[in-house]
Amino acid sequence: MLLDLLSKLWFFENLYYGEEWLNLGNTFKIQLTINPLAFSDAMIANRTPESISAREKWYYLLGGFSLVLMGGYIALIYPVKHRRMQKYLLGMLLYIILFSLSSLLARYLPGVPPKSSLVSVMLMTKIFLPVYFFTLFTQSYLKAAFAILIASNVGNLLSFTYYPYHVIDFMYLRPLNQHFGVGIFNFADVYGYIFLVLIIIYGVVALGRYLWTDPG
């Protein structure tokens, strides 16, 4: 997270918007961009208002699921001996409830910006669910994978706490853009890609072990 934070601040202070700092034949380049959308979710920039609204509803649904999941986890699963973690999860649960209320207010009060409402819902899905799975799994490999995902999401979350209060992206890799539609990204996004690779490897290995040991 420190690498992500320092790199964002350095490029923002030393480059102007759209300026290229390095270009290796348009295969890899460093170019400063400011992403005004929540958590580098740039794909919704070119969508219609109807599709953005549908995406927002999806985040509300997933956020509500995370709320129920976290509450049930605290109330039913965690025993008394884990009081410290229980207090930590309870604090996050209250945090989610507060942001949920602000999201509802944004629907009816003109003084609350809808964009902040959407960001608050994405907080639930991109921060609290990875923390939940990090505490749920006991295998060190999976814990490490979800720790990387948490670092990824927190890195982009912190971008909304300092100027320009948007996600700062600065790296471009043409193969990622051509094959996966990835635009300009940052180190926090790289951590997210590493998480996906680790989970895919884990799934392949687990499936291989199952097929190898299955007597059928």
Describe, in plain words, how this protein is organized in 3D:
This protein is mainly alpha-helical. It has one domain (2-23, 44-213). It is 67% helix and 9% strand. The protein contains 7 helices and 3 strands, in the order αββααααβαα. It has helices at 2-14, 49-77, 83-108, 114-136, 140-158, 174-180, 187-213, and strands spanning 20-24, 28-35, 167-173. The chain has a 3-stranded antiparallel beta sheet. β1 (20-24) and β2 form a beta hairpin. α2 packs antiparallel against α3 (83-108) and α5 packs antiparallel against α7 (187-213). The longest helix has 29 residues, at 49-77. It is globular.
Task: Give a brief outline of the structure.
With 216 residues, the protein is mainly α. The protein is 67% helix and 9% strand.
Question: Which descriptors apply to this entry?
Answer:
67% helix; globular; three-stranded antiparallel β-sheet; single chain; mainly alpha
